[in-house]
Amino acid sequence: MRKLALVFVLLSFFCVSSFAVINIGVSGGYASVAMTEVNKEIDFEASIYTGFSPAVTKLGNGLYGNLDLNFGFIPFINFGLKSGILYCFQGKITLDGTNFPYLPPGSFSISETYDSILIPIMAGLGLNLGLPGMPFSINAGVYGGYGFSIVSFGYNIKVPSAGLDLSAFPAYNGGGFVMDAGIGFSFSMLPFISATLNVAYKLAKIPEVKAISDVNLGPPLGTSLSTKDKPLKDHDGNSLPIDYS
Q: What's the gap between Cα 48 and its chain centre?
């Protein structure tokens, strides 16, 4: 009986292995991001410059690239690993004028930039259904894991007549749960090669990021912009979430 059971297990192993397929995929495209709380802070920051008509660009879109590794152990269903990078298009506040408060007299220019990237590492399950007589198949998948967020804020202040040129780039990092669910089509092009078109929704709201180092704007302002290991906060003193959803 034990020998029969062992034979059955071995046969099952080889049967499952016969279905095993490893697929490697590279994908990229356009992504939207929520960034609701960050954009509120951009609006608040811009309101400080009321009277100087600042130009404002908010965070809302970006580009992503993914690397997928899928293992198909049974027909139609595979276990997958997914990683990549999501780069958000830069947010920005810029203004020019004359005689800004707290700065030496003369013409000035100020710019504030907001950069953000997400690096997710996820695992999940996928489904791939071939359609009889058709050159394409339907695929779907759900992935979950951890996302690493890196945020940088750039400050540049210039008053040419006073020889003032200040720049600083405080950076923050943090992480949290991320999830990705999508559906799409795969088109067979050549043996072992296919093209895919996917639409997906991601859940990726990083609750908190912390300063990587101490950063000061420097004299004559001497403003402290970040303190190492301190969380990034909004103007009300609450931790500022970075929402890539």
A: 28
